[in-house]
Request: fold
Amino acid sequence: MATVRIPKVLQAHTGGQAEVEAGGSNVGEVLRALTEAHPDTGAQLFGEEGDLNRYVNVYLNDEDVRVLDGLDTAVAEGDTVVILPAMAGG
Amino acid sequence: MAPEATTQQVEEIEPFEAAQEIEGGDVVLIDTREPHEFQEARIEGGKLVPPGLLGEEISAAAPDKSARTILYCRSGNRSYKAAEQMEALGYTDVASMAGGILAWQEQGLPVVATEGMTPEQRDRYSRHTLLPEVGVEGQLKMLNAKVLLLGAGGLGAPTALYLAAAGIGTIGLVDDDVVDASNLQRQVIHNTERIGTPKTESARLTIEALNPDVEVIEHRTRLNAENILEIIEPYDVIVDGADNFPTRYLLNDASVRLRKPVVSASILSFDGQISTFVPYEGPCYRCLYPTPPPAELAPSCSANGVLGVMAGTMGTVQANEVLKLVIGTGEPLIGRLLLYEALGTRFTELKVRRDPECPICGEKAAEIPEAEMGQFPDYELFCAG
Reply:
């Protein structure tokens, strides 16, 4: 199982949970497990083609999955997947 | 050499006696303090030999062991001990100045002070200049620095207060808003009496009362593609505390073009983010966020609320980044994004990489023709937020 950190803007779709445990061998599977458990997060994370939305940053531990293997990046037991939204508040 | 010398009392002389000897010449004068103290104010002709380096450096500073040698420090203790050490090393005519440079100055005797700072400034910034990483040199850099703050709001207020207190010589403020009662839960640079006053003016009044060394330049406007280059050009560092995506992308593109470092933070509810973007040295804002999110994922603070003190936390981290950039020390958040989650009191650091495909700072960005420089897309349309 990996821990998925849920940003504040998505917590309305996870019943207020800031962290969700989700299983999967890669980042894509972990995020799919998240969207199966909390279906409303799906439209925020994925486009119609099933790709990650361009405005959604996803990190495996401290590294951006864009510089790893994207959704195919392997996830090990105990890893943390961080969903990072851009914020503009000042 | 002469072991009995260490058991003898070191000769102590009063500052006026030392002054007479120094004036008469043929005296080696040794300053046994630390470099930052020496830098601040010293007796003319004094050679610096810090106590920890005496064994290594004294023979270069005082090659003749029989020459008359006077030692001084801040209050007379370190120089006394150093004199004992020197006698043990075989120096035969050493004296320690009682009371140190403090007593010297109390008697109105002259010191050589570092140029560029007034006595008031030396006092005001003494807690900075005592830090070896800052010193007088770093403080002078702050006094000569020009920093532009985008927004005199939740982030800008604490950032501006600390930059002003630190002695950043010129602080520019961009904001076209007026102070509202709902701002005061976090925008600590304003106050109840200033409700209805333009934020730039309110911030200027607070800064001027805090530190007369700071010149405040008010830009009572919103940044747009037409005015941004002209506004940011004179500044050394830009602080992004803007409350909307169009301004953040516009600032990024213009600051990369002008090679201005940007300290960029954002806040919402209990969450804060901060990174430092130094063009071509690290990633830019677009490397991190290539595309702004749609409006439903980009709620504003006014719609969603924000914990006031969290804005203060992020604002002071911004000020910390600015000071490091200005004095050129430490490790700024270049290529790093720091997340702060106030409910859990948790800091998380993520890596941010330069994107070779970045349209602004990537490899192809250099191919943008000169004629298109200064042209910016219509960010209001481009950004759904």
Notes: Confidence is low (pLDDT under 50) at residues 1-6 of chain B. Chain B touches chain A through 48 residues (CB under 8 Å). The longest strand of chain B covers residues 262-268.
